[in-house]
Amino acid sequence: MKQNLQQIKKAKSGDTEAFAALYRDIHMDLYRFALYALKHPDDAEDAVSETIIDAFASISKLRSEDSFSSWIFKILTVKCKKILKRSLTVTEEFFLNIPAKDTSASLDERIDLRNCFFRLDDDERLIISMHIFAGYTNREIAKILHMNANTVRSKESRALKKLSVWLSENEKER
Description:
- It is a single chain.
- By secondary structure, the chain is an all-alpha fold.
- The chain has two domains: 1-91, RNA polymerase sigma factor, region 2, helix turn helix motif (Rna Polymerase Sigma Factor, Chain: A, Orthogonal Bundle); 102-174, Orthogonal Bundle (Arc Repressor Mutant, subunit A).
- The protein is 72% helix and 0% strand.
- It contains eight helices and no strands.
- The protein has helices at 5-12, 16-38, 41-58, 68-86, 107-119, 122-132, 138-145, 149-173.
- It is globular and about 55 Å long.
């Protein structure tokens, strides 16, 4: 999301239209992140809704306009973690209606990637989502998730290797 610093400043000063414009610019990225992290559209919508409510209530406390995107994704990450902890069981149902950012891949390739992605453990999925969709570094992810940065790197590396193996297996089956 290209941050509009002027709108962020207006939103910080209580301009609801400016906040609404910021939300329109970022809502699909937030939803995509939450959906990949949580695997269920209803949970993703809940996480995004709760994030927006909290962000709107506390945007005046945002220290730097430049950090709006990482700030709101941090809020979303906390919401996703709470939902994951609340969920005793997570559905393995696959949803074709997940919005794809990159449409250059074929539908079969996107389906394979999503199926493989959903096979990852919750922590692995969350780390990959935070890195790819929210743009966090491993050090930032470690701080947010209260993990060692080396642990985050290891989990991310293992998750990417798993994805690679699973995708290769799927390619061979076709």
